């Protein structure tokens, strides 16, 4: 029986993966990167620390990681993401339904806590989540299971009674390694491998139906 849903944020609750990728490509082009855009897909689902490491490596010495961070921070500040505008259809209603049915909810994101909190509030869904676990709360980021295990512990739920709602391969792996049922939101834009998920859902409402079916 599923009594808790632990959800990723980017690419699951909102179309932020696409928004972030546009930002990443713009930053890299301005810093002199001439490689294929597809090489940048490696940052999807990773922590900011790993994202900057990958970007610095692809820039092949054009800038230091510190210089990249400084440039990127200024770019993000000048080009903020409008999370309410990119919230996936049905997400607010689906998570409200889970919340009111007594399912415990946690948002588990590799993004910085300040960004996650702002995004959830802009999407008008922050109040539905009992816990928010972000990159700052763990030592080992996804695909390590620490984030999901920590969320389950914070909710007072055993892993076998938790379902993970994810999209990226690293997130799916983290959920599986945590001993949880993993439902992946079907993703086609970046051609990510979602084969390790237990089930695929077209949207948040189909995820809810899968959870209800487990009762």
From TrEMBL:
Signal sequence range: none
Pfam family name, one: HAD_2
An example Gene Ontology molecular-function term: phosphoglycolate phosphatase activity
Gene3D superfamilies: HAD superfamily/HAD-like, Putative phosphatase, domain 2
Any GO BP annotation: DNA repair
Protein name: HAD family phosphatase
